[in-house]
Structure formats: structure tokens, C-alpha cells
Amino acid sequence: MAFYYSRRKLKPREEEETGELNIVPYLDILMNLILFMLLSITGLASFGILNVTAPNYGGPTAGAQQDNPETPKLTLSVLISKKGHFINSENAILGQGGSEPTIPTKADGSYDYAALNAKMVEIKQAFPGETKVIIGADSDVQYEALIATMDACRETQGKDRHLLFPDVTLGAM
Questions:
Q1: What is the pLDDT, as a whole number, of residue 4?
Q2: What is the CATH code of the structural domain delimited by 72-171?
Q3: Domain spans, the chain
């Protein structure tokens, strides 16, 4: 018994016509969108930059020296708690002292940023060459309170804005 192939199997098949998907225009649009987003993010990020430095843990370097050792040194720090703002300098607590804050919170529990700004203006008049302030906050203080405290310490309020303490350092409590 011989084996024969059928003609149907021996006949070459014609290729089926299928449309080829062209994704090149889609990739062009996608690359343009990605480049546009990257450029717009870097451009918009510069509007929200606030100069804040981390505290140094080491001592001063050998090359760093005081300009004038006779001028009193002010290491100003503002600590934020639920009670209010504690304003300290290197040598003294500026305020009532003890456990009472320098600028207590208002009766409704909100912070008094106008009084804080007035106190910063008073300190700036006493130490006109000083530009640094260290700001620390309790862990339960809202982020908006920290930013508003930075704003009150950095410049005066109102139409005529003047820099007070623009070099802000965030410290840990």
C-alpha cells in the first residue's frame, strides 16, 4: 500500500494579508511628551526652592576663623511646640524663661506669627550682621506651622519686605 499526499496539502498556501501596525508616530508623540514633562518639572521646581541647610555635626574646620572676636555671637534658634515659639540664643533664652514660651499660642490654639516676626525684627536690630537662624519643631507640629515660622523668621511682613534671617537651618529637637 502506497502513501499518497493529497493535492490540498501539496498546494502552496498564499500569505494572508495582515496590516502591519506602525507605532513610530505613537513613539514620537510619547517621547515629545516625556521631554516636555521633564523640562517643565525642572523649570517649575526652581520656584519652590527654599534655602535650608542641615546642621553640621563636626566642629569648625581649621581654616574657619572668626572675623571679629569682640562682637557678641548670636546663635539664634526658634523651637516650635504646641505651647508656642521658644526663641533662644547661644547664651540666653529670649523671653520669660523656664518652661513658658517666648511667644505663646493664641487663645484659639493658633500660632502668633505677627508677634514672632516683630520679635525677629527686634533681634535683627540688636544684631544687624547676623543672618542665621536654627528652626526646630516637635514631631506633632503641623508642616504648615513650620513653613509659616520660616517665613516669619526670614523677612518682614507687609509691603516693604526686608530680609531678617535668610539662612535657615533645620534642627532636631
A1: 65
A2: 3.30.420
A3: 72-171
